[in-house]
Amino acid sequence: MEIITTDGCFSVSTPIDVVQCTDDFTPSIFVSDFTLLTTDTEYNLEWFWNGISSGEGASINATVDGYYWLIASDEYGCYWTSDTIFYQSPNNDIDGDG
Fold first, then answer.
1. What is the DSSP letter of 74?
2. In this predicted model, what pLDDT tens digit does every residue of 67-85 receive, in sequence order?
3. Using an 8 Å Cβ cutoff, are 28 and 59 in contact?
4. pLDDT tens digit string along 14-38?
5. Strand ranges (DSSP E) for the chain?
6. Which residues pair with 4 in a beta bridge?
7. Coil, strand, or helix at residue 90?
8. What is the four-CA torsion angle of 71, 74, 78, 81, rounded to 10 degrees?
9. How many CA atoms, within 13 angstroms, populate the side-chain half-sphere of residue 21?
10. Within a 13 Å sphere around the CA of 58, how many CA atoms are in the beta-carbon half?
11. Coil, strand or helix at 91
12. How far is the C-alpha of 78 from the C-alpha of 23, rounded, in Å?
């Protein structure tokens, strides 16, 4: 944008990019034995266990029972949070419900 005042002063503003993040995406989590994984690999992925960062990337090894979720983010600073799941190791599944 260019602005010229009535006194003849001239100014040019620097263009900025505006990013609008969509909120209609929820990262997915799948369980395979001792591995938690997602297919949403086009994002930066950070995994959490009971509120503590526990890994990055498309999968992590779940070594402890507890609540897990992941945050997917992109290069523009947009981020999305998965649903929280409770993971129970197949070795600790005493009631046999998976």
1. -
2. 999 999 999 999 999 999 9
3. no
4. 888 888 888 789 999 999 989 999 9
5. 2-4, 10-12, 30-32, 35-37, 44-49, 52-56, 59-61, 66-73, 79-81, 85-87
6. 10
7. helix
8. -20
9. 13
10. 5
11. helix
12. 9
Token digits of residue 71: 């945050």
Q: Which of 36, 16, 21, 17 lies closest to 74, judged by CA?
A: 21
Of 14, 15, 18, which Cα lies nearest the Cα of 78? 18
Task: Give me the amino acid identity at 29.
Answer: I
Q: In Å, how far from its chain's centre is CA 1?
A: 35
- At 68, list the tokens: 């897990």
Amino acid letter, 66: G
Q: CB neighbours (10 Å) of residue 74?
A: 13
Amino acid identity of 80?
Answer: W
Site of tokens 């005493």: 94
d(CA 6, CA 88): 71
Q: Residue 58: which residues within 8 A CB-CB, separation 6 or more?
A: 37, 38, 39, 41, 45
